[in-house]
Amino acid sequence: MRYFYFLWLLVPLQAVAQPAKKTVMEIDSLFQSYFKPGEPGGAVLLVKDGQVIYQRGFGVADIHSKEPITTKTLFNIGSISKTFVAYGILQLAKEGKLSLEDDLYKYFPDFRNKEIARSVKLYHLLTHSSGIPDSRKVEEEKEFYLTAKDEENFAPLKQTDSLQFTPGTRYRYSNPAFNGLALIIEKITGKKWQDYIRSTIFLPAGMLNATITDGPHPEKGVSHAYVYNAAGDINELDYGEEPTFAAAGNGGVWSSVEELWKYEQAIQANAFLDRDWITRSRTAWPFPAWKDSIPSRLGLSWFLTKEMDLDMTGHTGSQGGFRSDYCWLPGKRIFYVFLCNTPMPTKEIRNKLFLILKGSNWLDQ
Question: Could you say which DSSP state residue 33 is in?
Answer without folding.
Answer: T
